Structures are given as C-alpha cells and as structure tokens.
Amino acid sequence: xxxxxxxxxxxxxxxxxxxxxxxxxxxxxxxxxxxxxxxxxxxxxxxxxxxxxxxxxxxxxxxxxxxxxxxxxx
Length: 74
Fold this sequence. Notes:
This protein is mainly alpha-helical.
C-alpha cells in the first residue's frame, strides 16, 4: 500500500469500494453497529455491543473466508 496523491480521488476508488462493500455486507449486521446516520441507530446501541476486538476480528475473518472469497456476497 502507498499513500494516494492529494486531491486525486480516483486513486482511492478500489479501496473505498471495498470498505463500502464490507460495511454493507458485513458490518451493518453486527450487533452494536452505529453506522453513519444517528437517526437510523437504535436507542441503546452501546449496550448491544457484545464483541471484543479479538472476537470481532475472528468474526470478520470467518465472513471473509465463507462469504467474500466465495462469491462476494453472503
């Protein structure tokens, strides 16, 4: 990986698309996800969070193996 040139958004498209797809297909379905919109959040999102960083990392790795690498969707 290398830094993208300033004021050249086309250099970041593939990475941004990948993060967007992970957000759409994986992250928003994890308990405790807050998302970008305050109005779309639940009332007690902080209390719903039930994963440690290690557990979340393992869950993401499983999802990448079972879903992302197989078909891109799950």
